[in-house]
């Protein structure tokens, strides 16, 4: 069996660097990373066998608890977790919580009993987040910043910046009457994106207008209906995520409204469907793959006794596609 | 702790019936099923604790290996497996194979080593399917009918009927020049759907026309381009699945072709996105939830020493939405 030292020697790096590349968490110079990957391939190095020998106490299983695996955000996230886990010889135990606090609690208990190496969770329940601080195994909370001391680490995107980017983009597209489909204020994502929108409204002297919504497609359809009743003259909509933007598009076109000609629309997340659907959605992209990869990486680093950051905030960026149109393009 | 006998007594059924309802696999009279579910709720009966006591040798884990968890067909299937497993106190270990034979083999070995109670797999690899027959734990193959004696049981939809339904529907919509985006002939799904299309062509004296495609979005875009070059006068397209139909819609509208006015389009699967996108897709629906549920049920029945069917073929049905239009509606 090839050893990590042999791989390191061939790649001309330290064994610690090989380990870092395998864990995928720390910054490694891209040239070095390539050399390590080539050395791994050349030697047929099997990291899981090594890890198995080194960390016998580890069950090599990471629990992943998501509200809904059918929601593309979570299937993309889970896939990224799985890929990172697989590369390092771990497996994922996938649990679907249906946003049910009881099911979440049972899943957490079960994962602890099964001696999972850690839990990666996105929870919408206050009761669950309270118990996470006392969990005997490491917990990485994704896409939520929980109050208090819950969890070992958390990962989220810069929602505040995202809210600002979305609102400013609609301003740049000439919108005067922007409505925000506001995500739940119980979550940091909802609060911070809304705050970003609010600050842009203030800056440009626009009226704050919002409709409450949750992050699923059905809620989006209902919220779009309410929006059309309450704000029939809107010319720009910030959806709380891409799934909701997709449902807003459907509701509005069903009412004969044209997007982006009459009403411009922006989502959040940049799930793959946002560019598969027609028209493709303008959205605020959060790096879902990197977030999932890091979540797995943190659990693995914890198992291996390595350091990791507790707070991990990822940058977001505006992705302009077909549901918005900048002013200069409108004049063409 | 409540026993299964107490639940049975309250519901006025036999303990075996309670077990059947919990496993969700055998036919149970709907009224009885409701009584059992109420009794379970009333007593706070915890099937997993019971099962744990009864089947100590079971690891209570079911391995699920899919080519791509981001593909909605597989995330919907996995969710159904998870829900059925959870109800009966099992967990799923989710593996993403990326259609890579080596990754599939490693996943299978890993699941065997972890003493999973069984494996639910959709594989596209001949080499993998050959080893499944010798797998020491039960294997349920979903959405593929493998050659030879691979696997413990298999589950698929009636693809031949689906192919016929799709083609006949386009005929009824007035299409004269139908092109079939043919799924891979290596899979029963691809072969049988194509055969169904072929038989309808023969019956109605239509010319057979096809373009090869695989089941993913990117392949769909390429195939749509080829289709437009080779068959510019087509008036009806049978996509090999909904993801491909979504990409065909995008390619065709980008070329200024109108669906369904000029070209009618039908998908296959009835994934949730087929009704979320605009326009909603006409498609051939396969009961994805029921298939996933049965897959988990078979593994659990195997653990519990109960009988199950080896061959399970589910019916399909036509779902008419916005990408096709019947002749009489066209005249309106």
From TrEMBL, chains A, B:
<dbReference type="Pfam" id="PF00532">
    <property type="entry name" value="Peripla_BP_1"/>
</dbReference>
<keyword id="KW-0804">Transcription</keyword>
<feature type="domain" description="HTH lacI-type">
    <location>
        <begin position="2"/>
        <end position="56"/>
    </location>
</feature>
<keyword id="KW-0238">DNA-binding</keyword>
<dbReference type="InterPro" id="IPR010982">
    <property type="entry name" value="Lambda_DNA-bd_dom_sf"/>
</dbReference>
<dbReference type="GO" id="GO:0003677">
    <property type="term" value="F:DNA binding"/>
</dbReference>
<keyword id="KW-0678">Repressor</keyword>
<dbReference type="Pfam" id="PF00356">
    <property type="entry name" value="LacI"/>
</dbReference>
<dbReference type="InterPro" id="IPR028082">
    <property type="entry name" value="Peripla_BP_I"/>
</dbReference>
<dbReference type="InterPro" id="IPR001761">
    <property type="entry name" value="Peripla_BP/Lac1_sug-bd_dom"/>
</dbReference>
<protein>
    <submittedName>
        <fullName>LacI family DNA-binding transcriptional regulator</fullName>
    </submittedName>
</protein>
<keyword id="KW-0805">Transcription regulation</keyword>
<dbReference type="InterPro" id="IPR000843">
    <property type="entry name" value="HTH_LacI"/>
</dbReference>
